[in-house]
Amino acid sequence: MSTRVNEILTTAASFEMPKYSSKDFSSDQDVRWCPGCGDYSILAQTQRVMPELGIPRHKTVFVSGIGCSSRFPYYMETYGFHGIHGRATAIASGLKVARPDLSVWVVTGDGDGMSIGGNHFIHLLRRNIDVKVLLFNNQIYGLTKGQYSPTSEQGKVTKSTPQGSLDYPFNPAALALGASATFVARTLDRDPKHMQMVLKRAAEHKGTSFVELYQNCNVFNDGAFFQFTEKDTKDDSLVLIEHGKPLVFGKEKDRGIKLDGFTPTVVSLKDGQHSVNDLLVHNERDTTLSFILADMTYKASLPRPVGIFLSVERPTYEDLMTAQIEHARAKRGEGDMDKLLNSGDTWVIS
């Protein structure tokens, strides 16, 4: 090894992580979303969280597909890639496998990620590539002006479904769990502190992290999640799931979730028949429980769960791939591309 290479490696080893602020992750591009869009909050919380992760900007990449959310890489002062419709997860997978040292994030929407990108999405999750997926769910196609999306509720009247949608909506959290995801969470654009916590946990997780973000589209689907975000209704409509804590909700914290077999039911804590000790206690390492909680999503009689559904460890795809390559090298030696191309059956066309 040359003296110059040694000097470079020594310099790199002594490099100190700069002390970033949120402004350091804000690019010089004008942020162009509709005034009042929930994307502004998600961008702000992401920029606030980034300095706390201890990852240099030149080691961070945001990849997007097509949609309102896909403007995101332009507004982050990191590396970025604006891909094509539904292919952000495929691009991110290739990038992470080629450069495992990078922190790779995918920004997608319910249309981009759940429709044309659905196949790439489930395979990223099952492979457990160490990529962080942020799915902005506003239950509508915003960029193309208000058609129903894979997460729109049945009966949704839009330009593409003037008599109401017949489709039953995707449940992104349940879909992710069904694809063997190792980290699944849900948060809201109007709860900055909770969102910051979830983003940090997603960043710290080794493997594919999937975060569903309820995001308001105030132009084409205004108020889709107001029941879960507004002061007058959120306490009675939402239940915060936290590891090791019972599921309690209500303005007076007077109701909870109890399991009747495998079926969650709402019970009162004021009637003298039930106490906190009777309630379901969340365990984010229990895959069966995570499915039960995710299935509560569209049950009108139950509060909507928000928090970290599942966080478990499993070897990542890129680690397994690296180990496989190292094993092959140890067994067969370094490869020779020229020798490989000219071995076996070859022929010359004159």
Fold-level CATH name of one domain: Rossmann fold
Which structural class is indicated by helix and strand composition? Answer: alpha/beta
Lateral strand order in the biggest sheet: 2-1-3-4-6-5-11-7
Order of helices and strands: HHEHEHEHHEHEHEHHEEEEHEHH
CATH superfamily of one domain, please?
Answer: Thiamin diphosphate (ThDP)-binding fold, Pyr/PP domains
| Low-confidence blocks of residues | none
> What spatial form do the alpha-carbon principal axes imply?
globular
How many helix segments? 13
Which CATH class of one domain is shown?
Alpha Beta
Termini separation: 45 Å
Short description:
This protein has helices at 3-13, 39-49, 72-75, 88-98, 110-116, 118-127, 172-178, 192-204, 226-229, 234-237, 287-294, 317-332, 337-341; strands at residues 60-64, 79-82, 103-109, 131-137, 183-188, 209-214, 238-241, 248-249, 255-260, 263-268, 304-311.
Can you characterise this structure?
The protein is α/β, with parallel strands linked by helices. It has a domain at 3-228: Rossmann fold, CATH 3.40.50.970. The protein is 32% helix and 17% strand. It has an eight-stranded mixed beta sheet, sandwiched between helices. The longest helix has 16 residues, at 317-332. The protein is globular, with a radius of gyration of 23 Å. The model has no long low-confidence stretch (mean pLDDT 94).
